[in-house]
């Protein structure tokens, strides 16, 4: 199963780590807050875990169905 990804805009500090690591999956919005790219190719769960773990503010959240995945 592929994780569902969200970015918590209230937590994002615009470091750009996710955008640099996976530019096809993440981008900056007009306020320079990271967001997922609609229609982006799905990333493997292992890669999504890596990207979420590398987010310095912890703004990237992963879900397996309705359950949030502990990325730490």
TrEMBL record:
Look up keyword Iron and say if it applies. Answer: yes
Q: Which PROSITE patterns match?
A: 4FE4S_FER_2
**In what residue span(s) does the 4Fe-4S ferredoxin-type domain sit?**
3-31
Cofactor entry? [3Fe-4S] cluster
Statement: the UniProt record of this protein carries the keyword Iron: yes
This chain belongs to the protein called Ferredoxin
Q: Which UniProt keywords apply?
A: 3Fe-4S, Electron transport, Iron, Iron-sulfur, Metal-binding, Transport
From which organism does this entry originate?
A: Pseudonocardia ammonioxydans
Single annotated GO MF: metal ion binding
């Amino acid at each position: 199963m592929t994780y569902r990804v969200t970015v918590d805009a209230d937590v994002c500090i615009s470091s750009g780590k996710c955008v640099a690591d996976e530019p096809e999956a993440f981008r900056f919005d007009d306020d320079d807050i990271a967001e997922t790219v609609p229609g982006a190719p799905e990333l493997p769960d292992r890669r999504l875990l890596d990207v979420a773990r590398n987010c310095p503010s912890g703004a990237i959240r992963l879900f397996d169905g309705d359950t949030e995945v502990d990325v730490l």
